[in-house]
Amino acid sequence: MIVDDIERFLPHRKPMLLLDSASLDDGVARGKMHVKGDEWFLQGHFPDDPVVPGVILCEALAQTTAFLIADGVPETKTPFLVGLDQVRLKRPVKPGQTFETECRVERIKEPFYFTDCKGYVAGKICVKARLSFALIDKAK
Fold first, then answer.
1. Sign of the four-CA dihedral 81, 86, 90, 92
2. Which of 32, 34, 48, 103 has the CA that lies 20 to 30 A from 119?
3. Pick the catalytic residue: 12, 30, 45, 94?
């Protein structure tokens, strides 16, 4: 699924829509974010050695998870990130690399969803985290 399709599931829009593509297979959401080097979040982080900020990596995980959750909830609800737990940043993500995400729901206690997420570059883990979401009524 490419960006135009992702926008049917997620409320995010450029420049905050970070995913270039996403897929859903057997309860696992996967996303891809290719880092070109001209992204707004790289400006000044760091001028001589750009690195994607950890919070941006977490946001890409959250968008992947929201895509997963949104697939199974009424269109009147939006999944909102409410918690980041056990975040571990293992490797930097740099321009020219494709950051790949993998997220799955571990448990649900309505309206909350608890998830396990990982992010990779070339098969090597860069970040892992447990994210929590709440389903919130969409603004009318």
1. positive
2. 48
3. 45
